[in-house]
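Need Pyrimidine-nucleoside phosphorylase's 3D structure for a figure. Predict it.
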Amino acid sequence: MLYYIQQKAKEAESMRMYDLILKKRQGKPLTKDEIQWMIREYTDGRIPDYQMSALLMAICFQGLDKEETYELTMAMARSGEMLDLSQIQGIKVDKHSTGGVGDKTSLALTPVVASLGIPVAKMSGRGLGHTGGTIDKLESIPGFSTQLEDDTFEEQVNSIGISIMGQTKDLAPADKLLYALRDVTATVDQISLIASSIMSKKLAAGADAILLDVKTGSGAFMKEESDAMQLAKEMVEIGKSAGRKMTAVITNMDEPLGMAVGNILEVKEAIDTLKGNGPDDFVELIETLASHMLILGGAVKDFDEGLMRVRESIQSGKALDKFKQFVAAQGGDTKYIDHPELFEQADIIEEIRSEQDGFVGSIDAQEMGICSLILGGGRETKESVIDPTVGLVFSKKVADPVKKGDVLATIYGNDEEKVKQAVLHFKENYHIIEEKPTKPIMIREVLS
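Structure prediction for Pyrimidine-nucleoside phosphorylase:
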C-alpha cells in the first residue's frame, strides 16, 4: 500500500499542465489520474487561468469521451464538501432544471412529492440574467430563510419531509472556478462541460436519485431539441456511472412556463397551482415530473399510479398543507400562502392590448425574461439587487385566439421609464398571426 501511494505521488510530481494541454489538443483522452491532478492543482491555485483556458478550448475542439466526462465530474464533485444524507430516512430524490423563464417548478413540485412520502433535501441557486432562481423566489416570501446549517437541513427533512437551502460555497468549488473561466473564454456551450458542471453539484449534494428537467427552445440554454437530448443522455450516463437512479425529461421552453414571470408573481402562481388552479402547461409539467420522482423514490410502480397520486395530493389539499409546513419551518409567514393578495405589489400596473385579431403565433421566452430583467426582476451581475414585485403576467399564450383590444399581458413595474422599455421589448417579441399555429408540446421526451 505504501509503495502504491509513493508511486502515485511520483506520478503527480511528474505531471505538467503543458503536457495535458498538448495531449488534449492532439485528441488523446486524459486519464483519471491526470484529470484528478489537474482539478486539484487548479482548485488549489497552482495552475494559472491561462493554462486552464487553453485546456478548456482544446476540449471544445476535441471533446471528451464518456470516461473523461465522468472522471471530470467526480473530480469536481470531490473538490469540496460531499454531503452525506444517510441520516435522512428514505430514498432522497433531487431535481434539477437547466433553467428557463417563468420556471417556478420547484416551488410547486417539491411539496407535492414530499406530501407523498418522498424526502426532498434540495440545494438551489439564485437567478442570473434572464432566468430566475428558486432561492430568489422563496426569499420573496416574508421571513423565509434559505441559509441553513447542514444539521438543521437534515433534521427538517426527517421531521417534515422537505427542505430547500442555498448552495454552500464548499459545494464543488472547482466547478465554480471553472464556470467563471468558461464564461469569459467562450467555452460555456460544450455539452460534456455543461453535463459535468451540473452533475458535479448534484452528486456532491448527496441525493440517491436525480430527476433532470432539461429545457429546450428559445428561452432555454439548449435552443435545439437535439442538443437538449444529447445533454440529457450525458447527464443520465454520468449519474448511472456514479450509482444514482436517473430520469431526464426534455421539456418545452419556446414560450415562458405558465403565465407569470417575476419572483412574487411566480410564487403566487405556484400557490394557485397547489390550490388546483394552475395554468395548463405548468400543471402538466408538475404532474409529469412529480410522477417520475415518485417512481425514482420507489413510492409507485408506474407513471399512471404516480399521476393518480399526484392529482389526489393537490385536490385533497395535502400538497398545499406541506408547502405551508415547509414555509413555516424556514421562518416564512404562512398568512401570505393563505392570502396571496397580501404580497407587496408593484406601483405601476400596465395592460398591453392586442392591436389586431388573430392568434398568438410565438412568444420569445428569452426576450420575455429580458422584459423582466429590464423592469428590475433579474440580475445582470451577481451583485445586482432584484426587485421581487416586478414582472409580467400573460393573458394569452401561443395558439390562443385574440380579438383586437384583448389584454395580452400585464406589466408590473416601479419605474415609468423601465416600464416603457419593457412594453416596447414585449411588443417586438410577441407575435400575432392570422392562422392558428400548433400548440407547443410540453413534454418532448423521457429518458430513464
